[in-house]
Design a protein that fits this description.
Pfam families: CoA_transf_3 (PF02515)
Protein name: Carnitine dehydratase
GO molecular function, one term: CoA-transferase activity
Order of helices and strands: HEHEHEHEHHEHHEHHEEHHHHHEHEEHHH
CATH class of the largest domain: Alpha Beta
Keywords: Transferase
CATH superfamily of the largest domain: Crotonobetainyl-coa:carnitine coa-transferase, domain 1
Mean pLDDT: 92
Helix content: 25-40%
Strand content: 5-15%
Strand order of the largest sheet: 3-2-1-4-5-6
CATH architecture of the largest domain: 3-Layer(aba) Sandwich
Number of domains: 2
Low-confidence stretches: 1-7, 398-411, 417-421
Number of helices: 19
Length: 421
């Protein structure tokens, strides 16, 4: 039996989250909450979270590795929210919940009779209700479906990614979904802080559209100031030089030289005395204006250098430089040891943040489909008989008989448990 008090002493211990979300942004948000101590109950539809099937590769438990990357530390149940009989089950779960997260198409919860403003807020006034969607509910695009790559295209991210020869290119990770998960978590935590003063929950929203536009730093600011549309520059920076990848003898490195002091140290170390004395490269604005000639001079000096040795030397001098690693190489770095989670039945990426007094830790292995249904519902006050009837009714996996027999049991459970306010 799960006991939230024994989960771990993270900063969010005691917080209860009902997670109706699936795929990436919502599940990532709730996994981060779980990693920091929250009791997260993942409520899946009868066919499960689609991400369970997005493989190969598949983990030892049969789920796609993709699913495991955003669903550790949760308990899983299944519930068919399209059936009215499921509403009382959800209400039972929400009696002592702090947060509900969903990423259905806007209007879906209202269509199911679970609207926040008219149904959930009056019944659970302390609930923080987080909705995640592509475009939100209102505005010209309100209610439309949104996917990471589509938003990368629509919001200009692809237009600044890639080379002139490649044309607009999708960023190789679902960066919009990922940051939307963080944006949603931030909104939830701000609402929790505000609730400590007012005693009231509220609806919070994160959209892929707004998140994608917020990623355009500094490109949007450059355009607003200059009127010139940003263009594809490969790995180069529109405002800084040299800030790009360069070829060495055995691979590529990335130089991130931000100021004249770092540039001077770099040139001295590589013997580029003529470059350092050249007025074309005296300051960042000059280097930007002559970046192509500067690249030729730098790559000539790097041609015989080992990338690992050179990066180590430059970093010791305070000049930011790093080898361009593959994903396996990235995790093989000794410094990455704390970010790789390896245990029986699970391998994953660790927590990116660190709290020193109340540290988080990677939650338990990702749950199997409906793995904790009986446990969670019993804790919510449902009897074994009621749970059996829910399965027979189709509200839980099972047959499709009427669920009238359990409504009174659910209502009694709702009335008898403490309500979060």
């Amino acid at each position: 039996m799960f006991d939230a008090s024994e989960h771990h002493g993270g900063a969010l211990a005691g917080l209860k989250v009902i997670d109706l979300s699936r795929v990436l942004a919502g599940p990532l948000c709730t996994q981060m909450l779980a990693d920091n101590g929250a009791d997260v109950i993942k409520v899946e539809p009868p066919l499960g979270d689609e991400t369970r099937t997005l493989g190969p590769p598949f983990a030892d438990d049969g789920n796609a590795a993709y699913f495991g990357s955003v669903n550790r530390g949760k308990r899983a149940i299944t519930l068919d929210l399209t059936q009215p009989g499921a509403h009382d089950v959800l209400f039972a779960l929400l009696q002592d919940a702090d947060v509900l997260v969903e990423n259905f198409l806007p209007g879906t919860m209202r269509r199911w009779g679970l609207d926040y403003d008219t149904i959930l807020a009056p019944r659970f006034p302390g609930l923080v209700y987080c909705t995640i969607s592509g475009f939100g509910e209102d505005g010209p695009l309100g209610g439309l479906p949104g996917y990471d790559a589509i938003l990368q295209a629509m919001c200009g991210l692809m237009s600044i990614n890639g080379e002139n020869t490649s044309g607009p290119t999708r960023i190789g990770i679902p960066i919009v979904d990922h940051l939307t998960g963080y944006t949603a978590m931030t909104a939830i935590l701000m609402a929790i802080v505000e609730r400590s003063r007012s005693g009231r929950g509220q609806r919070v929203e994160a959209t892929l559209f707004n998140t994608a536009l917020s990623l355009l730093v500094p490109h949007a600011a450059n355009w607003l100031a200059s009127g010139q549309a940003p263009r594809q520059m490969g790995s180069a920076h529109p405002n800084i030089a040299p800030y790009d990848k360069f070829n060495c003898r055995d691979g590529q490195i990335f130089l991130g030289i931000l100021n004249d002091r770092q540039f001077g140290r770099f040139c001295e170390h590589l013997g580029l005395h003529d470059v350092l004395a050249d007025p074309r490269y005296a300051h960042n604005a000059d280097r930007l204006a002559h970046r192509d000639a500067l690249r030729v001079a730098i790559e000539a000096a790097l041609a015989g250098r080992s990338r690992q040795t050179l990066c180590k030397e430059l970093m010791a001098l305070g000049v930011p430089a790093g080898p361009v690693n593959s994903v396996p190489e990235a995790f093989e770095q000794p410094h990455a040891a704390g970010m790789l989670v390896q245990r029986d039945g699970y391998r994953g990426v660790g927590l990116p943040n660190r709290l020193y007094r109340t540290p988080g830790q990677p939650g338990g292995n990702p749950p199997g489909f409906a793995q904790h249904t009986d446990e969670v519902l019993q804790q919510a006050g449902l009897s074994a008989v009621a749970i059996a009837h829910l399965r027979e009714s189709g509200v839980l996996p099972g047959s499709t008989q009427s669920c009238d027999a359990v409504v009174s049991d659910l209502q009694q459970a709702n009335n008898s448990t403490g309500r979060r306010s």
